Amino acid sequence: MLFMDSSTPAAAAQSHICPDEQPRVTSGNSLNLRRVTAVLSERKHLALVYILCRALISVVQVVTREALGEDLGTRLEEIIFNSIKNADPHVTARTPNKQANMNMFAYLLGALSNIRFTSVSNRFAAEMDAMNWVAHLRDQKDGEARLGYLVQGVQFLKLKVYPLEAFKDTADFIATFATLFESSRGSSVKTAMTKTLGPLLAQVVQSATAEVNHPVWGKAINLILSKSHSMSDKPL
Protein backbone atom coordinates (compact mmCIF):
# COMPACT_ATOMS: atom_id res chain seq x y z
CA MET A 1 0.00 0.00 0.00
CA LEU A 2 1.51 3.32 -1.02
CA PHE A 3 -0.28 5.56 1.48
CA MET A 4 -1.22 5.15 5.14
CA ASP A 5 -4.96 5.18 5.90
CA SER A 6 -5.76 7.83 8.51
CA SER A 7 -8.55 5.62 9.81
CA THR A 8 -6.16 2.90 11.03
CA PRO A 9 -6.20 1.95 14.74
CA ALA A 10 -2.83 3.64 15.27
CA ALA A 11 -4.13 6.90 13.88
CA ALA A 12 -7.31 6.65 15.97
CA ALA A 13 -5.31 5.98 19.13
CA GLN A 14 -3.14 9.03 18.59
CA SER A 15 -6.19 11.23 18.18
CA HIS A 16 -7.38 10.27 21.71
CA ILE A 17 -4.15 11.11 23.56
CA CYS A 18 -4.96 13.48 26.38
CA PRO A 19 -3.35 16.94 26.35
CA ASP A 20 -1.10 16.21 29.34
CA GLU A 21 0.40 13.17 27.60
CA GLN A 22 0.86 14.83 24.20
CA PRO A 23 4.27 16.53 24.83
CA ARG A 24 5.76 13.35 26.30
CA VAL A 25 4.54 11.17 23.38
CA THR A 26 5.66 13.68 20.76
CA SER A 27 9.10 13.97 22.28
CA GLY A 28 9.55 10.24 22.74
CA ASN A 29 8.47 9.36 19.21
CA SER A 30 9.84 12.30 17.25
CA LEU A 31 12.46 10.16 15.50
CA ASN A 32 9.90 7.54 14.52
CA LEU A 33 7.53 10.22 13.26
CA ARG A 34 10.27 11.69 11.08
CA ARG A 35 11.00 8.24 9.68
CA VAL A 36 7.32 7.63 8.93
CA THR A 37 7.05 11.02 7.27
CA ALA A 38 10.12 10.29 5.14
CA VAL A 39 8.77 6.87 4.09
CA LEU A 40 5.38 8.31 3.17
CA SER A 41 7.01 11.13 1.25
CA GLU A 42 9.15 8.68 -0.73
CA ARG A 43 6.16 6.47 -1.51
CA LYS A 44 4.18 9.47 -2.69
CA HIS A 45 7.09 10.51 -4.91
CA LEU A 46 7.41 6.99 -6.37
CA ALA A 47 3.66 6.90 -7.06
CA LEU A 48 3.79 10.24 -8.86
CA VAL A 49 6.76 9.13 -10.98
CA TYR A 50 4.94 5.92 -11.91
CA ILE A 51 1.81 7.83 -12.98
CA LEU A 52 3.90 10.33 -14.96
CA CYS A 53 5.69 7.52 -16.82
CA ARG A 54 2.37 5.89 -17.70
CA ALA A 55 1.13 9.19 -19.10
CA LEU A 56 4.33 9.81 -21.06
CA ILE A 57 4.23 6.32 -22.57
CA SER A 58 0.69 6.96 -23.80
CA VAL A 59 1.80 10.23 -25.40
CA VAL A 60 5.02 8.91 -26.96
CA GLN A 61 3.21 5.94 -28.51
CA VAL A 62 1.08 8.24 -30.66
CA VAL A 63 3.36 11.22 -31.31
CA THR A 64 5.81 11.60 -34.20
CA ARG A 65 9.48 12.46 -33.81
CA GLU A 66 8.84 15.85 -35.39
CA ALA A 67 5.91 16.61 -33.10
CA LEU A 68 7.92 15.64 -30.02
CA GLY A 69 10.77 17.90 -31.07
CA GLU A 70 14.50 17.28 -30.92
CA ASP A 71 15.20 19.25 -27.75
CA LEU A 72 12.35 17.73 -25.74
CA GLY A 73 13.06 14.26 -27.10
CA THR A 74 16.74 14.47 -26.19
CA ARG A 75 16.03 15.82 -22.72
CA LEU A 76 13.39 13.18 -21.97
CA GLU A 77 15.69 10.46 -23.26
CA GLU A 78 18.55 11.67 -21.10
CA ILE A 79 16.52 11.91 -17.89
CA ILE A 80 14.96 8.46 -18.24
CA PHE A 81 18.15 6.75 -19.35
CA ASN A 82 20.17 8.25 -16.50
CA SER A 83 17.52 7.10 -14.04
CA ILE A 84 18.13 3.51 -15.14
CA LYS A 85 21.90 3.88 -15.46
CA ASN A 86 22.37 5.39 -12.00
CA ALA A 87 19.98 3.06 -10.15
CA ASP A 88 21.43 0.78 -7.50
CA PRO A 89 20.29 -2.71 -8.59
CA HIS A 90 20.62 -4.10 -5.07
CA VAL A 91 18.41 -1.42 -3.49
CA THR A 92 15.91 -1.51 -6.35
CA ALA A 93 15.55 -5.30 -6.13
CA ARG A 94 14.53 -4.98 -2.46
CA THR A 95 11.92 -2.28 -3.11
CA PRO A 96 8.90 -3.30 -5.23
CA ASN A 97 7.81 0.30 -5.83
CA LYS A 98 11.25 1.29 -7.09
CA GLN A 99 11.40 -1.81 -9.27
CA ALA A 100 8.01 -0.93 -10.76
CA ASN A 101 9.31 2.54 -11.64
CA MET A 102 12.46 1.12 -13.21
CA ASN A 103 10.27 -1.10 -15.36
CA MET A 104 8.26 1.93 -16.43
CA PHE A 105 11.47 3.80 -17.32
CA ALA A 106 12.50 0.88 -19.53
CA TYR A 107 9.06 0.75 -21.19
CA LEU A 108 9.22 4.49 -21.81
CA LEU A 109 12.66 4.25 -23.42
CA GLY A 110 11.32 1.42 -25.55
CA ALA A 111 8.45 3.63 -26.70
CA LEU A 112 10.89 6.46 -27.44
CA SER A 113 13.08 4.11 -29.47
CA ASN A 114 10.20 3.62 -31.88
CA ILE A 115 10.73 7.21 -33.07
CA ARG A 116 14.30 7.81 -31.85
CA PHE A 117 15.94 4.42 -32.28
CA THR A 118 19.45 5.55 -33.20
CA SER A 119 19.89 7.92 -30.26
CA VAL A 120 18.30 5.60 -27.68
CA SER A 121 20.21 2.51 -28.86
CA ASN A 122 23.47 4.50 -29.00
CA ARG A 123 23.03 5.46 -25.35
CA PHE A 124 22.61 1.84 -24.36
CA ALA A 125 25.50 0.66 -26.52
CA ALA A 126 27.94 3.29 -25.24
CA GLU A 127 27.04 2.78 -21.58
CA MET A 128 27.10 -1.02 -21.78
CA ASP A 129 30.54 -0.88 -23.34
CA ALA A 130 31.79 1.49 -20.63
CA MET A 131 30.28 -0.62 -17.83
CA ASN A 132 31.74 -3.77 -19.36
CA TRP A 133 35.27 -2.36 -19.07
CA VAL A 134 34.64 -1.06 -15.55
CA ALA A 135 33.34 -4.48 -14.48
CA HIS A 136 36.59 -6.02 -15.70
CA LEU A 137 38.89 -3.46 -14.10
CA ARG A 138 37.31 -2.52 -10.76
CA ASP A 139 34.75 -3.98 -8.37
CA GLN A 140 33.73 -6.91 -10.53
CA LYS A 141 30.68 -7.99 -8.54
CA ASP A 142 29.11 -4.52 -8.32
CA GLY A 143 30.04 -3.67 -11.92
CA GLU A 144 28.49 -6.86 -13.24
CA ALA A 145 25.31 -6.24 -11.26
CA ARG A 146 24.95 -2.74 -12.72
CA LEU A 147 25.71 -3.92 -16.25
CA GLY A 148 23.26 -6.80 -15.98
CA TYR A 149 20.60 -4.41 -14.72
CA LEU A 150 21.14 -2.00 -17.62
CA VAL A 151 21.08 -4.83 -20.16
CA GLN A 152 17.59 -5.81 -19.05
CA GLY A 153 16.27 -2.46 -20.30
CA VAL A 154 17.46 -3.21 -23.83
CA GLN A 155 14.77 -5.82 -24.46
CA PHE A 156 12.11 -3.11 -24.84
CA LEU A 157 13.83 -1.38 -27.76
CA LYS A 158 11.76 -1.40 -30.94
CA LEU A 159 13.78 -3.07 -33.70
CA LYS A 160 12.63 -2.47 -37.26
CA VAL A 161 13.09 -4.43 -40.47
CA TYR A 162 11.60 -1.87 -42.84
CA PRO A 163 12.62 0.39 -44.45
CA LEU A 164 16.16 -0.74 -45.29
CA GLU A 165 17.79 2.16 -43.45
CA ALA A 166 15.93 1.17 -40.30
CA PHE A 167 17.13 -2.41 -40.65
CA LYS A 168 20.71 -1.20 -41.00
CA ASP A 169 20.33 0.58 -37.66
CA THR A 170 18.88 -2.60 -36.19
CA ALA A 171 21.75 -4.71 -37.56
CA ASP A 172 24.36 -2.25 -36.25
CA PHE A 173 22.89 -2.35 -32.75
CA ILE A 174 22.61 -6.15 -32.68
CA ALA A 175 26.22 -6.33 -33.87
CA THR A 176 27.29 -4.11 -30.97
CA PHE A 177 25.24 -6.16 -28.53
CA ALA A 178 26.68 -9.40 -29.94
CA THR A 179 30.23 -8.12 -29.45
CA LEU A 180 29.48 -7.27 -25.81
CA PHE A 181 27.80 -10.65 -25.37
CA GLU A 182 30.85 -12.42 -26.77
CA SER A 183 33.15 -10.67 -24.28
CA SER A 184 30.77 -10.83 -21.31
CA ARG A 185 31.87 -12.28 -18.00
CA GLY A 186 30.02 -13.20 -14.85
CA SER A 187 26.84 -15.22 -14.55
CA SER A 188 24.57 -12.23 -13.88
CA VAL A 189 25.67 -10.41 -17.04
CA LYS A 190 25.51 -13.48 -19.29
CA THR A 191 22.11 -14.45 -17.90
CA ALA A 192 20.75 -10.93 -18.47
CA MET A 193 22.08 -10.89 -22.02
CA THR A 194 20.66 -14.28 -22.95
CA LYS A 195 17.25 -13.29 -21.55
CA THR A 196 17.37 -10.01 -23.48
CA LEU A 197 18.40 -11.53 -26.80
CA GLY A 198 15.22 -13.59 -27.08
CA PRO A 199 12.73 -10.68 -27.16
CA LEU A 200 15.10 -8.61 -29.33
CA LEU A 201 15.68 -11.20 -32.05
CA ALA A 202 12.03 -12.28 -32.03
CA GLN A 203 11.04 -8.83 -33.31
CA VAL A 204 13.19 -9.34 -36.42
CA VAL A 205 12.49 -13.03 -37.01
CA GLN A 206 8.76 -12.39 -37.15
CA SER A 207 8.97 -10.24 -40.28
CA ALA A 208 12.46 -10.42 -41.82
CA THR A 209 13.11 -12.33 -45.06
CA ALA A 210 16.05 -11.52 -47.32
CA GLU A 211 17.19 -8.87 -44.83
CA VAL A 212 18.87 -11.53 -42.71
CA ASN A 213 21.46 -11.91 -45.46
CA HIS A 214 22.87 -8.49 -44.59
CA PRO A 215 26.58 -9.04 -43.75
CA VAL A 216 26.48 -7.05 -40.49
CA TRP A 217 23.48 -9.03 -39.32
CA GLY A 218 25.04 -12.34 -40.34
CA LYS A 219 28.26 -11.61 -38.48
CA ALA A 220 26.33 -10.62 -35.35
CA ILE A 221 24.27 -13.81 -35.38
CA ASN A 222 27.40 -15.91 -35.80
CA LEU A 223 28.95 -14.24 -32.75
CA ILE A 224 25.81 -14.89 -30.72
CA LEU A 225 25.69 -18.53 -31.77
CA SER A 226 29.38 -19.01 -31.00
CA LYS A 227 29.02 -17.53 -27.51
CA SER A 228 25.85 -19.53 -26.88
CA HIS A 229 27.59 -22.78 -27.81
CA SER A 230 30.55 -22.02 -25.53
CA MET A 231 28.17 -21.23 -22.66
CA SER A 232 26.27 -24.47 -23.17
CA ASP A 233 29.52 -26.42 -22.80
CA LYS A 234 30.19 -25.07 -19.32
CA PRO A 235 28.23 -23.59 -16.39
CA LEU A 236 27.54 -19.88 -16.28
Automatic annotation (TrEMBL):
Pfam families: MOR2-PAG1_N. Residues 42-235 form the Cell morphogenesis protein N-terminal domain. It comes from the Eukaryota. GO terms for biological process: cell morphogenesis. GO terms for cellular component: cell cortex; site of polarized growth. PANTHER family: FURRY-RELATED, PROTEIN FURRY. This is MOR2-PAG1_N domain-containing protein. It comes from Puccinia triticina (isolate 1-1 / race 1 (BBBD)) (Brown leaf rust fungus).
